TrEMBL record:
GO molecular function: oxidoreductase activity, acting on the CH-CH group of donors, NAD or NADP as acceptor
Entries under InterPro entries matching the protein: ADH-like_C (IPR013149), ADH_N_2 (IPR041694), ER (IPR020843), GroES-like_sf (IPR011032), MDR_fam (IPR045010), NAD(P)-bd_dom_sf (IPR036291)
Keywords noted in UniProt: Oxidoreductase
Enoyl reductase (ER) domain segment(s): 12-328
Taxonomic lineage from the root: Bacteria, Pseudomonadati, Bacteroidota, Bacteroidia, Marinilabiliales
Pfam families assigned to the protein according to its UniProt record, in alphabetical order: ADH_N_2, ADH_zinc_N
Domain of life: Bacteria
UniProt-recorded name of the protein: NADP-dependent oxidoreductase
């Protein structure tokens, strides 16, 4: 059975050679354990941080050890009284086709409630991030203008749709004309901007947001965000959720000094980590599941087939090759 390990720590943009596919013996299970067969695997931009050394909110991956992320797996063997063969679970699992597990922190899934892959996206970490970042820090009010970057991705597409459900004017920023069209036509965004073809982001935001920006949900950082910052209103709230434009930087680029903007406008700018809001997960999932069920929330997934394709699927996130949640089907 195959496993994917960290081969080298990337310098700049991750390369296929930073990963290695290794064959291992199929694990045996002991009493109190389950044998899991991987079904779906989530690749996420934050894994880039774990591939590097250094202090963060989560431990770095070890060289020559399996990487891990959110996964959905089937219980194919059980010597654990809490789990039966045939059940599906989700949790932070290793990038292995098969693995044994003591059951701790595994959540059982109901395949009849939603497609299994949804538990890695709209009903998983990215949906929770969108809902909790927006409602706990952004606190958007009806009629306010919400701008979201990385808008056609897993988190961004859900943020924008929730903001619409809450009665806001929503402006999305994404990297292709096709994505821009999708934001407006499929998700109902009021305006959308292609940051790759826009030469003046400040002006583009000003035109798309005639009443200024009340909430900015930032997934990308860098120059895109510099343009948004010049348009914030008094008492604006900025959710610093992700900074994918900086994750591969080998030196930290210098941006404008934003302190005067924050002071002049009494802006709240807060870094967000979804794991700090675990007490709100149940409530968030119930809202997301309800909207999904009645069709008020569209879940978009880019599914790549084949365990071996995992490293490429991860690298493709930095090229914007995904629409919605990037998932590997094993
Ligand atoms: P996405 O599905 O949004 O995939 C990444 C997207 O980022 C790509 O599709 C691409 O879209 C865009 N992108 C890539 N490179 C750049 C760049 N240089 N500048 C601008 N955009 C770029 O991923 P997720 O929804 O999973 O994550 C979105 C962000 O949220 C990430 O920064 C991630 O780290 C963060 N996050 C944070 C969490 C937290 O708790 N703080 C939890 C989950 C995610 P395009 O074609 O538009 O360029």
């Amino acid at each position: 059975m195959k496993t994917i390990q960290l081969n080298k720590r990337p310098v700049g943009t991750p390369q296929l050679s930073d990963f290695k596919l290794v064959n291992e013996e199929q694990p045996q299970i002991a009493v109190g354990e389950v044998l899991l067969k991987a079904a779906y695997l989530s690749v996420d931009p934050y894994l880039r941080g774990r591939m590097s050394e250094g202090k963060s909110y989560i431990e770095p991956f070890e060289l020559n050890q399996a990487m891990s992320s959110g996964m959905v797996a089937e219980v194919v063997g059980s010597k654990h009284e809490g789990f039966s063969k045939g059940e599906f679970v989700t949790g932070m699992l290793e990038w292995k086709e098969y693995q044994n597990h003591n059951g701790e922190d595994l959540m059982k899934l109901d395949p009849n409630m939603a497609p299994l892959s949804a538990y890695l996206g709209v009903l998983g970490m990215t949906g929770l991030t969108a809902y909790l970042g927006l409602t706990e820090i952004g606190k958007p009010k009806e009629g306010e203008t919400v701008v979201v970057s990385g808008a056609a991705g897993a988190v961004g597409s859900v943020v924008g749709q929730i903001a619409k459900l809450l009665g806001c004017r929503v402006v999305g920023i994404a990297g292709t004309d096709e994505k821009v069209e999708q934001l407006k036509a499929e998700y109902g965004f009021d305006e959308a901007i292609n940051y790759k073809t826009t030469t003046d982001m400040n002006q583009a935001i000003a035109e798309a947001c005639p009443n200024g920006v009340d909430v900015y949900f930032d997934n990308v950082g860098g120059e895109v965000s510099d343009g948004v910052m010049l348009n914030v209103n008094r008492f604006a709230r900025i959710i610093v959720c992700g900074a994918i434009s900086l994750y591969n930087a080998t030196s930290m680029p210098m941006g404008p000094r934003i302190q005067p903007i924050l002071i002049k406008n009494s802006v709240l700018m807060q870094g967000f980590i979804v794991f700090n809001f675990q007490d709100k997960y149940t409530e968030a999932i119930s809202h997301l599941a309800k909207w999904l069920k009645v069709g008020e929330l569209i879940s978009t997934e880019t599914i790549v087939e084949g365990f071996e394709k995992t490293p490429q699927a991860f690298i493709d996130l930095f090229e914007g090759k995904n629409k919605g949640k990037m998932i590997v089907k094993i």
